[in-house]
Design brief:
This protein is α/β, with parallel strands linked by helices. Helix content is 40%, strand content 20%. The structure holds flavin mononucleotide.
């Protein structure tokens, strides 16, 4: 059998895990006298030859890395150049591989590949799926080769069967999902290992910035947090009218309440603090923070009473900025916050910042 293999990775051949997997797969496949030719789509000069090979041969295998849960755009671009086969009988097979270890990650891609050949008047001839392939490109050659060595056997089996056997593939692709125990282990050890790995990769790439750097926010945001002053009163009350009229708050407040709140923020009241967010020329929002003690946690506690950002400045990270600011300022405190259940955006923000839901019903008198 002669097999045309098309590597759909956008990474150049020398750096491509798919290319390494293909080389290993071929070793097993060619053992019994089969032949192959391999084309790499990352090198556009090879596209004409790859297209001709597709037209002239009746056994085509696309080897594809998963990129953002999809086949790479470069492959779709290449497919656009192909015409459906005039004659019946061309078999199209696939190797689909990705970084995440659970086979379930690859099933969506597999379902797409099951129907893809029909658009080219080709016969679907199975997909070999397997995850856990982040590593090879970062490893020394000998270790990287070992990491993909299991593909050799699959090449041998493909030669014997002429197709990918579903059961054999599922066995090869396991685990479908991690068990609860494995998930717990990953959470405990995996986080630490991932951090170490990403630092290693960053260093290898000569990265000088910290890994949690957010350069995209610094320019855009231009926002500072400062304490509320008496001069801010009118502007803050204007924002409070909007905030308290919104579905984010259960009650509507009143002019009298707004005045009292601001006065408590800017005066001597030890229980309340007020903050405004501003960009030099405009106030972008405000927050009020009340202080108390949590007997449940045995710690002082802050309640974020109001957190309001004007429409034009939403999604800029100002809410997260305040939460980070308070976390540092009130280190060792419990921070509590209320949200209306329908306020999904606010809930997402709080959860992203590490807040957990407490199962209490709130009451007041
Ligand atoms: C930009 C990018 C996106 C990726 N997205 C996924 C993904 O969604 N799921 C996954 O399992 N692996 C993902 N991976 C990991 C690759 O599929 C994996 O490292 C693969 O072996 C790369 O093969 P290649 O070097 O031939 O391109 C991604 C890798 C990159 C660089």
């Amino acid at each position: 059998m002669h097999l045309v293999i098309i590597n759909a990775s956008p990474r150049m051949e020398a750096k491509s895990n798919t290319a390494r997997i293909v080389r290993t797969f071929i070793r097993g496949f060619e053992e019994s006298g089969n032949t192959t030719e391999v084309w790499h789509l990352s090198d556009k000069k090879q596209w004409t030859s790859a297209k001709e090979a597709y037209e002239k041969n009746d056994n085509i295998l696309f080897a594809i890395p998963l990129y953002v849960e999809n086949v790479p755009g470069i492959m779709l671009e290449f497919l656009e150049t192909l015409q459906p086969k005039k004659e019946d009988g061309t078999k199209m097979s696939f190797i689909l591989q990705g970084g995440f270890a659970e086979a379930s990650q690859l099933r969506c891609g597999e379902a797409y590949l099951e129907i893809l050949p029909s658009y080219f008047n080709c016969e679907y001839n199975g997909t070999l799926i397997k995850g856990d392939n982040f590593g090879p490109s970062w490893m020394p050659e000998n270790i990287a080769d070992k990491m993909v060595a299991h593909y050799e056997k699959m090449g041998r089996l493909f030669a014997e069967r002429g197709t990918f056997d579903k059961e054999e593939v599922n066995e090869f692709a396991a685990p479908e999902y991690f068990s609860d125990k494995e998930m717990r282990q990953h959470k405990r050890i995996g986080k630490w290992m991932q951090k170490a790995l990403f630092h290693y990769i960053a260093k290898k790439n000569n990265c000088k910035k910290p890994l949690d750097d957010k350069p995209y926010q610094i320019n855009k945001m231009n926002c500072t947090i400062r304490h509320m002053t008496l001069e801010d009163k009118d502007k803050v009350i204007e924002m409070m009218r909007v905030f308290y009229a919104s579905p984010a708050v259960f009650s509507n407040g009143s002019e009298e309440i707004f005045e009292k709140d601001v006065e408590a923020c800017v005066g001597e009241n030890p229980y309340l603090e007020g903050y405004v967010f501003e960009n030099g020329s405009e106030i972008q929002g405000y927050a009020m923070v009340a202080k108390s003690f949590s007997t449940e946690f045995g710690k002082p506690c802050i309640w974020i009473e109001d957190l309001y950002v004007k429409d034009d400045y939403r999604g800029w990270g100002i809410g997260s900025m305040l939460l980070n600011y308070l976390e540092k300022k009130y280190c060792g405190y419990i921070t509590r916050i209320e949200a209306e259940e329908e306020n999904e955006r606010a809930i997402k923000l709080y959860k992203n910042n590490g807040f957990e839901v407490l199962p209490y019903m709130e009451m007041k008198k």
